[in-house]
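Hi there. Long-time user, first ticket. I'm pasting a complex I've been working with (about 680 residues overall). I'd like to know whether the download I got is complete or cut off, because the file seemed smaller than I expected. Thanks.
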Amino acid sequence: MSATVRTRGSISRRLTLQLAVIAAFLALLSWGMVRSFSQQAAEQTQDNILAASATAIAEELRSEAGRIRLEIPYAAFSMLGAINEERVFYRVLSDGETLTGYDDLPVEQGARINGGVAFDTLSYRGDDVRVAMVQRTVFASERAVRVIVAVAQTRNAVDAISARISRAAALVSLAFFVLAAVLSFWAARVSLQPLTAITQIVSRRGASDLKPFETTAPQEIAPLLTALNRFMERLSSSLDRSEDFIAEAAHRVRTPLTTVRTQAEIALHSVTRSENKEILRRVIRAVDESSRSAGQLLDHAMVSFRTDKLTHSDVDLAELLGDVINTLRPTADMKDIRIRTELPSLWIKGDAILLQNALHNVLDNAIKYSPAESTITITLENRGAQAGIRVCDQGRGVDGADIATLTQRFRRGGNVGNVVGSGLGLTIANEVVHAHGGRLEMTGAQDGPGICVTLLLSLR
Amino acid sequence: MRFLLIEDNPELAESVVKRMGLDGHVIDHAASLDAARTCLQCAEYDLILLDVMLPDGDGRDFLAGHRIDRTTPVIVLTARSQVSDRVSTLDLGADDYITKPFDFSELEARIRAVLRRRGGAADNRITLGDVTLDLLAGTLHVADHALTLRNRELRLLEVLMRNAGQILSKAQLLDRLFSFDADITENAIEVYVARLRRRLEGGTPRIETVRGLGYRMTLP
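Hi, the file is complete. Here it is re-exported in full:
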């Protein structure tokens, strides 16, 4: 009767995922930052060289015979060669006229470059170039001439370097992310370890073991365990109360019935008129009916309650059957019924008390409905995955009723005659067998009118 | 045989004493565990019938204590639920148990079964003429040969022999011998009497039919 809990999500998975998402975000952020820094650093380096080169050229400006002269120093370009494979362009303008160099190199002539070095990135001859511009004032022919020196260099190498650094940064970030994800998974597992441990302790418990858990637990889980312990305590005391109640109820019902039956039986032996005797016999039968019904009802309650907290211990079916047969043998003897047995040793896991009660009910039925001086055959056999206990009588059969009908509460066969019964015996047996993962079968006896009731119980 | 009945319900106790007396047994009745301990100190019993719920304690505690130093067989009388009591009483060392209210025929049958398992008691034979009936072994010795009787034959012969010389009606025999659960008629008595007559052939006692009244066992 255990309800299955629908699972939704997993704390471990959720925790791992959350930590991994955080790690991915941090990895992306760090990659972006490294990439931007490397780009800036590469550009800064190029700018410094371009500025140095332009300044070196500007330092060589002279005025000679009223004309501005310039001898471009070798060093100015050799330093640019430090960044290899780049094309270098230059242009020197004197009052807006190209003095030397590429006269199509666009140079900004605004006030921006006054005094210092100005930089610009522009497209020239199909490439992105970086330009450094320096302005000098040279005196020639008694007047100040504004000279602008512009040195440009393509940016391919800078882009390549920053791309290389960016790739390396991406790889490092990816590695960082993978490591962080693995660590997140491990961290999630480790954090949930106490919960897993407690789950194991709880599920290893036997169904009837309601002792409180005595284990240490982390601060977060301790309240759960405390609540569980309190619940078990309440359950345990409520179960104990039910058992006591059932036993007490049986006592309360049966004690007055005992008095009535006893008085009726004493009276039966002292009255002589046959009609009075008949009345007393009917009283006794009625008392027997009601005490039996009360007993079976309470047994049924006890059985239902025990199947809810089924214990699984090793049970020797042969020994158990032997006990049940011994208990009922005096009743069988009263009718001179022979009980023939074939009981090889066979063990199953189950609740011995419940199984005993089920077998008691089946055998009790067989004895009740068997004629005097007949034989009941009880065989125990291993049927592969199941243990089969077959009880065959030579009784009156069940008059067309089937096992499904007879295992319903208070249902009895159509031909029970005067036999006292409650209609709960097979119901109890059926419930016990079902609780043990088995079923009840009923077939006609091979010879004669009797029936065979077989209890099939799972061997695992 | 001598039995000790520990039972606080006076009506039940009275009827057990009466009924067992009919079978020739002597019953001492104790209404409490205290009284029972006194009885056990001054007499030897063949069997104890013990109620579970008594005014001065739980019969099962008494049983556990009793088992330590005694070998007298015990049958527990219980009005509680079978499932729970069966285990506790048998585990504590009771030889058998019977649920109240019980049928006297069943109680007798259980007493005999327990005594037979425990090796019997001293006076379990009835003799009439040259016929001896061994009640626990279920054997009948007629003159110089022995034969085994079926249970119902044995019970019927026991009642007839104990009441030798008296007329017993079929109804009386029916009430004494069979449980109220068994759907048995007075005709069955005739069948069993006929069988017993065959079994008794060769011996001196006879089962007479007293027309219209019943049966009587006599010695010629």
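A couple of notes from our side: DSSP finds nine helices and 14 strands in chain A. The mean pLDDT of chain A is 84.
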